[in-house]
Structure formats: C-alpha cells, structure tokens
Amino acid sequence: MINYAIQDVCFLPKVYNVFLEKVKKFACLLEFDLISNVFKDSRKCNTYAYININCKNLMSCKVGQYLTTFIKNFQKFCIYCSLNLGCTGVILDQKSLKFIKTYFQMGDMLNLEIKRIDIEDK
Asked: Can you give the pTM of this predicted structure?
C-alpha cells in the first residue's frame, strides 16, 4: 500500500508547478477581483454603522416597531441579524425564514418588525 502511495506522491511537485503557472496567468485578474470585493464590503460596513441610530439601545425599542437589520448568519431553524444595538436579532418564523433564505444572502439589509423582545441577564 505504501509503494502505491509513493508512486503518486512523486508527481505532486510537477502538478504543483503546472498549477502555479496557471495561477500566474490569472494573478492580475484575481488581485483586481479581491480589491474590488474589499471596497464593496467596506462600503457595506460603512452603511451598517448608521443603522438604527435613532434607537439608544434595545430598551428604547417597542414591539411592533421596525428596525433595519443586516443578515449575519443562516442556520437551519433561524436567521441571526445584527441590529447595531449591542444585541442580535433572531428570525424564527418559518414562512419568513423560507422567503429570506430564497431571496437574500448574508450581508443584505432588511427592515423587520419586532415581534418579541427577550432580554437575558449577561
């Protein structure tokens, strides 16, 4: 079994060199895409900093009020959103989960209605 593995391992340096040659051809394009993505993400972060600035904290919010959120994380049974209020919003409604998972992605901003406020001791 070891002899069989050794036969393939000896080709890895050749495969690696071919891979490097291909990557070098696309390096400029990849670098441009990376810089473009950094600028795009930076603009999003700048926007996130100003959401819900009319609310001092979670205690100043009321059920029925709408807040701007951005999607932080998709889980099987919920979606976590940032509220920019020092806490995280959680979407649990199955119909809403299905709709948001279909049409939105992480980082997208949504206006959501507060249905319940749970405050835990930290």
From this structure: 0.62
Nearest-angstrom CA–CA distance, 98 and 71: 14
User: Over the stretch 59-87, which tens digit does the pLDDT of each residue have?
Assistant: 888 999 999 998 999 999 999 998 888 88
Whether the CB-CB separation of 84 and 48 falls below 8 Å is answered with yes
Residue % of the chain over a pLDDT of 70:
66
Tokens of 107: 């980082």
Query: Distance (Å, rounded) from C-alpha 61 to C-alpha 39?
Result: 33
- Could you tell me the two tokens for 116? 């319940």
Q: Which helix (H) or strand (E) holds 111?
A: strand 109-113
Distance (Å, rounded) from C-alpha 114 to C-alpha 91?
10
> Is the pLDDT confidence value at 13 over 50?
yes
- Among 42, 88, 93, smallest CA distance to 67 is for 88
What is the rounded distance in angstroms from the CA atom of residue 52 to the CA atom of residue 111? 10
Q: CA 21, 25, 31, 37 torsion: positive or negative? A: negative
